[in-house]
Amino acid sequence: MESDLSVSRRGFLGSMVAGGVASTWPADAQRAEAASTGAPPPVQTALTINGQRHELTLDPRVTLLDLLREHLGLTGTKKGCDHGQCGACTVLAGGRRINACLSLAVAHDGEQIVTVEGLTRGETLHPVQAAFLEQDAFQCGYCTPGQICSAVALLDEIRAGAVSAATADVSRLAPAALSDEEIRERMSGNLCRCGAYPNIVAAVRAAGGRRAA
Amino acid sequence: MRAFAYTRATDVSGAVAAARDPDVKFLGGGTNLLDLMKMGVEHPGHLVDVTRLPLAAIEERESGLRLGATARNSDVANHPLVRQRYRVLSEALVAGASPQLRNMATMGGNLMQRTRCAYFYDPTFAECNKRVPGSGCAALQGYHRMHAILGASEACIATHPSDAAVALAALDAVVRVVGPGGERAIPIVDFHRLPGDTPQLDTNLRGDELITAIDLPALPFGRRSHYLKVRDRNSYAFALVSVAAALDLDGQGVIRQARLALGGVAHKPWRVAEAEQRLVGQRPGDGAWRAAAEAAVAGARPRRDNAFKVELARRSIARALATTAALT
Ligand SMILES: Cc1cc2nc3c(=O)[nH]c(=O)nc-3n(C[C@H](O)[C@H](O)[C@H](O)COP(=O)(O)OP(=O)(O)OC[C@H]3O[C@@H](n4cnc5c(N)ncnc54)[C@H](O)[C@@H]3O)c2cc1C
Ligand code: FES
Ligand code: FES
Predict the structure, then answer these.
(1) Which of A37, A44, A56, A61 to mutate to test the interface with B (most CBs of B within 10 A)?
(2) How many helices and strands in chain A, by DSSP H and E?
(3) Which of B63, B120, B193, B310 is the most buried (most CB within 10 A)?
(4) What is the CATH number of domain B225-325?
(5) Can you give the pTM of this predicted structure?
(6) Domains of chain A with CATH codes
(7) Contacts of B91 in chain A (CB under 8 A)
(8) What's the CA-to-centroid distance between B237 and ligand 2, angstroms?
(9) Chain B residues interacting with chain A (CB cutoff of 8 angstroms)
(10) Is B83 left (phi over 0), alpha (psi -120 to 50) or beta?
């Protein structure tokens, strides 16, 4: 997708360090350009990403995934398919896991976004990140940021009593047990082409505080 | 992708007024629309984001339950009243897509999602009557294993991909919409269309109408409703065949009322009244299930690659009904 019309004031400075900025037009220049060509105007938006507020003026076509990777240099989040079919782009928006590739950045105005880069506390890994290391839950690592973000949300969802297609009786309101079957079903939105699935299940099980059966 | 303007609707009347412009499309979670825009199938000039409208509530009403059009699929699936009274809907929702997509997808967008027919989805195929009316149907001669066995036409053999809509058809849901002329209510079975010779029209919703809610009536089925989805892999895949079933048994265990709808077999959720009639007055058991299944597929017209769906539908119906009857 074209991402030539974007600037992030603070985000721009931040991303210079990471070296991933796509373009550097000032907002008024974008609006002048839009007005002269009859193109739709860019949209002002503010998002908080990993605790840092970004005020942005964006071409509405920019997906949340492209904003993170191409504009802000946050390349932890991966682009696998760009069509909602693999889960590599999974991030947390308002605490809920979503596919950043099928989401317009401007539609997340005012929201808190957390990416894999935002899970650590200082030098301390998130328990799910630590469990992925301990359980050797990856091979090439491409799907891993998405798997980890997904697993973080999964554990919250289980605690909140959410159902899945593996839940035998959805009419029982008590939280489902974190069985391997539940983990597999609830992680099914994240594909792993290396086939690291057995260890991914083990990592989620360990992070959820359950011993191997 | 064509450049488009983006605005956020703040009230229903504003959204409806904006949609008088045929270049406007409503944006829900974006999980289907944005995908189709990336593919070059849809190219609106203006997206009106409806997700901030005050339409996300799930409310108990005297006559049943009202699901707001922008309620996310995961929130509906997890709602205690949906789980306890409309179990088939909760099960259908969690059988669809992935947890991430369900967190994004809205109920309105789910009903309006377009077919996953590969020839529709990829504009490099010149023939698709749904995408370019009059261009032909590439699926007729192409690979049509996923396609319709019921209610299709020579113009289009696509299926409707929604799981939730199949459960809603079994539950007699009513779709509430607002247009320039005011409100109207569309029974779910009249919401989606058969292809006939206008397959470009998926639904009877007009372009300037906004879905505001889906109403579920109060029903006697209690916990006896169930969704069975059969697919090529066990999760994160569209249905080959799916079945939404509900049964009401009297004190003697005789079937008083039945509901049966199929997914993956037609251009719309396929409610089968004949099969339901066969079940009334019967005792649960293989004989009753087989008779219902036979009635459900009686009009099937399979093609070269999808003939397996007829037998798959029969067996899925029998299994779904048996599971439903065994629920207590
Ligand atoms: C990889 C993948 C797998 C999937 N698997 C399944 C599956 O197994 N089963 C299944 O059922 N679905 C599946 N889906 C589809 C998913 O359920 C739909 O994309 C989703 O429900 C659409 O909702 P949305 O809010 O994102 O709609 P959008 O993409 O935002 O919109 C879809 C359409 O609805 C219109 N619209 C949105 N809201 C309204 C409204 N209030 N009034 C009028 N029109 C409106 C839009 O203009 C657009 O035309 C899958 C999707 C993907 C990407
Ligand atoms: S990149 Fe978003 S799901 Fe594959
Ligand atoms: S570790 Fe390689 S894709 Fe998952």
Answers:
(1) A61
(2) 7, 6
(3) B120
(4) 3.30.390.50
(5) 0.94
(6) 2-118 (3.10.20.30), 127-212 (1.10.150.120)
(7) 165, 170
(8) 15
(9) 1, 3-6, 8, 27, 29-31, 34-35, 38, 45-47, 49, 51, 74, 77-78, 80, 83-84, 87, 90-91, 94-95, 97-101, 103-104, 223, 234-236
(10) alpha
